[in-house]
Design brief:
This protein has 289 residues and is an alpha/beta fold. Helix content is 42%, strand content 14%. α9 runs parallel beside α11. It is globular and about 45 Å long.
Amino acid sequence: MPRDSFPEPVPISPALVRDRRIGTGERGTVLVVGGARTVPGAPALSGTAALRAGAGTLQLAVAERHATALGVAVPEASVLGLPETTSGAIAADAADRLADVLPGAGTVVVGPGLTGAEETEALLRRLVPAIAPDARVVLDAFALGALSRAPELAEPLADRLLLTPNRVEAAFLDGCEEKDVDDLATAVRIARRYRGVVLLMGVVAAPDGRTWRDGSGHVGLATSGSGDVLAGLTGGFLARGAEPDQAAWWATHVHAVAGQRLIPATGSTGLLARELIAEIPRVIAELER
């Protein structure tokens, strides 16, 4: 699909996000599912970002071996231990362990710290039917790879789904090579195919073809864990009652501006993802004035 077939995306600016403020009356529950054997920190980043965005309650569902440590590291969260496969991925029957909490989770973020494409696909096949019918769902990281292998998993989540791919994951979702990813065109195709809002490198695309772009990002955000923070931000804004496109605008803008604030202290390439989290409330507070 040629780039010039699309109208120019609407700029995501402070004025735009202020025009669609997110209320504070609703502060729902975010459940983050991730944290396989080798990536225990990712759900902590996502979950803490969700709380900083305004989620009221945080639940982390991670590999059993990490549950106690994450409960101490993120004392604001309740933590559920999940079974692993022999490779250290989260096992498909983890969905059974989540049966008691999934009905009450208004927002479910799946992917931060998951590993194994086949294992994650098997987990999603068990998890998706158990998610509450009115819950919003964010898919990130290996959950996106699993979705590309089994696109039908998006069908029961249509119009309440938010996808946060990087360019590698976008290529899988779009069925192309990474070198052929065009942020705007690819995001539009993915949004239409999976009937979800897509947030790709500052571009936000809705299933109906509407698009927006935030130009505030910089190279410092291309750091390990930054995407986990972004996924958590979207989940936190959804938990406050935002619509998926609205949550994506706010998340990409707050994420980018938080990164800008750190440049004087970290330079453009020394930023750590965990440092973004402390800046999030200040950026949100300024936008909500």
